[in-house]
Amino acid sequence: MTLAHRIRLIPSIEQEMYFRKACGVARFAYNWALAEWQRRYAAGETPNEVALRKALNAIKYAQFPWMREVTKNAPQQAIKNLGRAYATFFDDIKKYRRSEIPWKRVRVPNFKKKGKSRDSFRADNGTDKQHPDAVAVDGKRVKLPVIGWVRMREEVRFAGRIVSVTVSREADAWYASFSIEVPEEPVAHVLANTVGVDLGVSALATRSDDVPKTSAPKPLRRYLKKLKRLSRALSRKQRGSNNRAKAKTTLARLHTRIRHIRQDALHKLTTDLVRTAATIVIEDLNVAGMLANRHLSRAIADLGFFEFRRQVEYKTAMAGGALIVANRWFPSSKLCSVCETKNEALELRERTWTCASCGASHDRDTNAARNLARYPESWAGSACGAEGAGRRPQTTVKPAA
């Protein structure tokens, strides 16, 4: 099993200059390989990233001697990334021809421009026989090729072999993303309970086990006025000026802060879930359809539903739990969690309702979470109603790793 751990770096001025050079070399190699790929394709050849890497190695020291100043992994990995980009492009074309995705989802690789693409480069560990430990970690510092030891904000949390490290820049901060090989050992969850989780806008997550609702931080809503102000300030600055560069960095810092607040809340929520529940049941939400609602699109995008599901998927596997994704046509909000009577007249604006059959009063979100917790027993083998039968799979179960 390969895990990733991203840590902020504390580079010196010289180390930051090296990072910028390495990112520039990686960007140049990517653009050079893309131009060469297009030229060979136009000439009737069949280009591939292996041939392009060999071609660059044959000429780089003669034509581009400044590449010697950084690790050789920087340009090589950039060309590998181009190969993966084209492989994804060709796969998307096949999916489009099979009507699996719309044309707007098909993306052809484009040239990278300085300042408009995320700067990064990768250093592999053990690819050089003369330097088998090109990347090493010692407490709160990491050894990188050429530049040596760089300080970090924290230690690496996972114990295993470091395969590679990707150094990237976000706003004016540098981060190292470690790819670590750890032994894949099956684990069993210490609990045996099932918890249903209902996601929403007013409350980010509502659980079925009477744990208080988790409120959404909504960082975009909190900083929207400041975001607009900084965006207007950037647009007024003259292109190419130092003031424009400063305004751009200030705006990027705010975007980074918004993303980090959202990520922090989601990580705390998903970690608490997998520690306190062996089986987690969530809904297969149609996020794209929800974003089409112009009244709710910004609020929904500010919550990060896709990121929540992604984190729950890999964390349940690591903790020895299981994730069940209920069919999106399952009427979790409309069903009475006491007598299972369906309230067809329930509208979205109604946050509380009373069952006409048994008289039970329900909070909409809590009732949905309780119905999701019972989903494996009562609905896993059913048709989920006539309107949803045969459209989508009933459940997706993620067993322990």
Characterise this structure.
This protein is an alpha+beta fold and 401 residues long. The chain folds into 2 domains: 2-181, no CATH class; 186-401, no CATH class. The chain has helices spanning 13-42, 49-63, 73-97, 219-222, 224-236, 242-276, 287-291, 297-301, 305-319, 364-373, 375-378, and strands at 2-10, 120-124, 136-137, 141-144, 148-152, 161-170, 173-181, 194-199, 203-207, 214-215, 279-283, 322-326, 352-354, 361-363, 396-398. The strands form 3 sheets. It has a 7-stranded antiparallel beta sheet. Strands 10-9-8-11-12-15 form a 6-stranded mixed beta sheet. A two-stranded antiparallel ribbon has the order 13-14. A hairpin with a 2-residue loop joins strand 6 (161-170) and strand 7. The protein is elongated. It starts with a strand and ends with a strand.
Structural class: alpha+beta
Radius of gyration: 25 Å
The number of helical elements comes to 11
Any idea what the shape is?
A: elongated
Enumerate the strands of the largest sheet in spatial order, edge to edge or round the barrel: 2-6-7-1-5-4-3
- In percent, how helical is the residue content? 40-55%
Strand tally is: 15
Mean pLDDT: 86
Order of helices and strands: EHHHEEEEEEEEEHHHEHHHEEEHHE
Distance between the termini: 9 Å
The overall number of domains is 2
As residue ranges, the low-confidence spans are 383-401
For the sheet with most strands, the description reads: 7 strands, antiparallel
Strand content: 15-25%
Features:
401 residues; alpha+beta; 2 domains; 7-stranded antiparallel β-sheet; 6-stranded mixed β-sheet; 15 strands; 40% helix; disordered C terminus
